Amino acid sequence: MAPANRSALCEIFVTVPLDRIRNFSIIAHIDHGKSTLADRLIQRTGGLTDREMSAQVLDNMDIEKERGITIKAQTVRLDYKAKDGKDYVLNLMDTPGHVDFAYEVSRSLAACEGALLVVDAAQGVEAQTLANVYQSIEHDHEIVPVINKIDLPAAEPDKVKAEIEDIIGLPADDAVLASAKAGIGIDEILEAIVARIPAPKGDPAAPLKAMLVDSWYDPYLGVVILIRVVEGTIRKGQQIKFMQADTVHLVDRVGCFRPKIEQLGEMGPGEIGFITAQIKEVSQTAVGDTITDAKKPTAAPLPGFKEVQPVVFCGLFPVDAADFEKLRESLYKLRLNDASFSFEAESSAALGFGFRCGFLGLLHLEIIQERLTREYDLDLITTAPSVVYRLHLSHSKTEDAKVIELHNPADMPDPNRIDMIEEPWIEATIYVPDEYLGSLLKLCQDRRGIQKNLTYVGGRAQITYELPLNEVVFDFYDRLKSISRGYASFDYHQIGYREGDLVKMSIMVNGEPVDALSMIVHRGAAEARGRHMCERLKDLIPRHLFKIPVQAAIGGKVIARETIAAMRKDVTAKCYGGDATRKRKLLEKQKEGKKRMREYGNVNIPQEAFIAALRMGDES
Amino acid sequence: MEGSLPLATHPSDPATGVSHAPGMAKELPGAIPAPAAGSLPSLEREGELALYVHWPFCVSKCPYCDFNSHVRDSVDQQAWRDALLRDLAHEAAVLPGRRLGSIFFGGGTPSLMPPATVAALIDAATRHWPAADDIEITLEANPSSVEAARFADLAHAGINRVSLGLQALDDQVLGWLGRAHGVAEGLAALDTAQNHFGRVSFDLIYARPGQTPEAWDAELRRALSFGTEHLSLYQLTIEPGTQFATRVAKGEFVPLDPDAGAELFEQTRAATAAAGLPAYEISNHARPGAESRHNLTYWRYGNYAGIGPGAHGRRDGRATVRRRKPENWIARVEANGHGIEREDDLPPEARAQEALLMGLRLAEGVDLARIAAMSGLSVGQLVDAAAVDRLARQGLLARDGERLTVTDAGMLLLDAILAEIVAA
């Protein structure tokens, strides 16, 4: 069917019969070929001509393409004439691919009845894949295993099949062997989707009940909302209600992506598509909310709604103080499209004015930071990431006892008032080749981990650890990667708050506390971390004309100390008439460089020192 | 108070920028200020012009050298003589009416210049500008037997001071430094030089990899025993783009640790001072009164004309630089009558910066009032007073009224100090 005819058909206000709909997502580890497979499916079903296909259509943002991860959920409607001679509508839901976006993933999965499990024929099953498979199974999905990249010389499809059966416990006999890159097995995948993934259910006559799967800001359309209709019908001109937000809107567009935007008259049960309703800010649309008819509402909202809360916080400060307003505007713009991060103005004695920002996780933090740097051309200083602590305060002369949340170590109240501090814990699942297991266990132990499980599958170990999140935001990924030469994979979910013996450690340079470097640490680890931090700073802060003490302290007590010796020699040996110009230019450059440093107690700390100091590197 | 004389403050003609036809040169007021009473006695040469002549050719390139030096199979001596004379005539035309205090033949290896060319340039220069009675005319020379054989002719041509590139008193080190001469040959050349020239200086390179304080002490004592009035003692610096820089990058040798270099520097200052040749500049030591008058002009930010490939000049705040590559320079002279690549009027801030970064190298320091008058800025605009006070409390600077000096303790940290205090 040509797109023109299709549009005409849609204008006659028909919803697609339930038995002709298949909704599925693709579960895959990074680099296992999810995007390439999606592209192939779009191409095969005629969604785009070859000329229109730019590689990896679904990942719109540069960062998504570069990192191979999906940040926003997206969907594409494929028209497929199956071997049974019937026309089907296949909705491919591209889910965010990282643990930081676990809740978004769960909503995307809830919008589908099945999933393709794509496993690299050479790499096998990875931890992250596993977590998504479990989520998918929890949603009662029918899972179709696809073994991808079978054309690679290192491909071992039989071994991977056995892994799928052993590790995941899914039958893999009828796994589809494919190579998305080479176009092998694409038809078989499409047939398997039709034959094995169940059709959705739902009553078109019931009151409207649809799930808000995701939303984003489009400069032309305003906020675009991705929905899955569960019951009833949604159409243009309808008054709808967001049940959690308790707001009412008027639908002005209903449509789908093929992947190009196409307007539809209406959507019935089982269908996935988008609506617009003259909404200006993404923050008005909560992922997982239930959309119903304002006049004839459904009885109860969909289960599983959660308000998204940032779990990792850090300060972002412009290197050049003059960029503060630019940073504020850029953050507003980013938030238009990502309601899951928060920010509020913060001022630091030495870093000046900036923002305290909250993120879903470390990757989310990195993505925002990278977009600010790259898309908005900002030079930033990022302070040490911190998790949210719960402080139980005893009563004071003026205040009653209470529990407060602490996002910023700089805001730590008087320690005498703190009865108890709680910190968030996670359960981590790590997959690691056997030879790196020893170092990995040591890393987890060093980070106060509690081992819950250890099993072997083939040459690999799967370990489950409970870990304090603050130990993980602290360069855990980097260490994990370097210990395992990149072979370990890691996944986690939060398991609640536990009491911890935590203290605020300050770093002082030439007697002055450097607020951006203060952090909350476990008392047992404080001395080692403080010593390490002082050693790092000793190397990172250039020598000055005087000697500089660098100290780590808890309260008034110094727990580690290093001294940066005074500079002994910085002079040009030869300088005659021909050198005046060159020397002047050097001097100007030197003065320019100093502008990019931060001054604490007459000590200039280069920006790189902050970044490097916070990336702790080789401990232990 | 020290003489707060402005350097000649007339601007160069903005309309023509460069050249005034001979005879059309304007009579400029106050071109040559008279020495002021109370200024430093032996060093008062303000208002005099210094002339620098660059001879870019060397027999071979030394591995540590980043100067504008080139190795060529043959040099058309007649063409070079003519070109240098034309380049000189241009400077004389745009900067008339000055008294010539010094000439310096540098390079490259100017001791390879035909003495007749040297003589012609000295004659021409002193015809263009009246020479001071005690004009200092220095030539840099390699201490080889070939060159020593020309010292008599060079003295006859008018050279009255030589600066010998002795560099080390150790044959092995000389080989490592890429020098063609040995110690014996070098000392013979020094002897010859002392016989022909009234004033002799020589260079040594120290703070070499692995050099111990004891070894340097012995070498330095020997150097002082030859009785020259002046010594240039340079710490080895690995300059980008040199053979040494590549070798360091490859890990073939490790430069001496800066802290060890600092020890040697202090040792050097103590030994030379005790021998009666105190440091008057970071790397230069002289018997009082025997300082290099020419180089003092640079450090005191006086006027200097620079001719020849890559030579820089400063004419009353106007910076000139000539084309660097010998062939390009000579082509430019033949086409334009001078070898200038570009010339710029330096803004007040740049002039002040240069005056400070050059002047603070000297033991005598700078007169801030003089630099203020010269640049048109106020004293407050020159230096960050708070930073000066802080560094003075630390003992790295000394300020007495408008005179600012870097102390012995601060001299080795000059570059860092400049970055702290230079305000403009």
TrEMBL record, chain A:
Enzyme category, top tier: hydrolase
GO BP, one annotated term: positive regulation of translation
Topology term for the membrane: Peripheral membrane protein
GO cellular component: plasma membrane
SUPFAM superfamilies noted in UniProt: EF-G C-terminal domain-like, P-loop containing nucleoside triphosphate hydrolases, Translation proteins
Entry's EC annotation: 3.6.5.n1
Pfam families: EFG_C (PF00679), GTP_EFTU (PF00009), GTP_EFTU_D2 (PF03144), LepA_C (PF06421)
Source organism, top-level taxon: Bacteria
Catalysis: reaction(s): GTP + H2O = GDP + phosphate + H(+)
Entry annotated with the keyword Transcription regulation: no
Binding site for GTP: 31-36, 148-151
Location in the cell: Cell membrane
MF terms (GO), sorted A to Z: GTP binding; GTPase activity; guanosine tetraphosphate binding; ribosome binding; translation elongation factor activity
Stated role: Required for accurate and efficient protein synthesis under certain stress conditions. May act as a fidelity factor of the translation reaction, by catalyzing a one-codon backward translocation of tRNAs on improperly translocated ribosomes. Back-translocation proceeds from a post-translocation (POST) complex to a pre-translocation (PRE) complex, thus giving elongation factor G a second chance to translocate the tRNAs correctly. Binds to ribosomes in a GTP-dependent manner.
Protein family: Belongs to the GTP-binding elongation factor family. LepA subfamily. Belongs to the TRAFAC class translation factor GTPase superfamily. Classic translation factor GTPase family. LepA subfamily.
NCBIfam families from the UniProt entry: lepA, small_GTP
Protein name: Elongation factor 4
UniProt organism field: Rhizorhabdus histidinilytica
Lineage: Bacteria, Pseudomonadati, Pseudomonadota, Alphaproteobacteria, Sphingomonadales
Gene it is expressed from: lepA
From TrEMBL, chain B:
Protein name: Heme chaperone HemW
UniProt-listed PROSITE patterns: RADICAL_SAM
Role: Probably acts as a heme chaperone, transferring heme to an unknown acceptor. Binds one molecule of heme per monomer, possibly covalently. Binds 1 [4Fe-4S] cluster. The cluster is coordinated with 3 cysteines and an exchangeable S-adenosyl-L-methionine.
Keyword annotations of the record: 4Fe-4S, Chaperone, Cytoplasm, Heme, Iron, Iron-sulfur, Metal-binding, S-adenosyl-L-methionine
InterPro entries: Coproporphyrinogen-III_oxidase, Elp3/MiaA/NifB-like_rSAM, HemN_C, HemW-like, rSAM, rSAM_sf
Family: Belongs to the anaerobic coproporphyrinogen-III oxidase family. HemW subfamily.
Biological process according to GO: porphyrin-containing compound biosynthetic process
Keyword Membrane recorded: no
NCBIfam families per UniProt: hemN_rel (TIGR00539)
UniProt xrefs under Gene3D superfamilies: 3.30.750.200
Cellular component GO terms held in the UniProt record: cytoplasm
Cellular compartments annotated: Cytoplasm
GO molecular function, one term: coproporphyrinogen oxidase activity
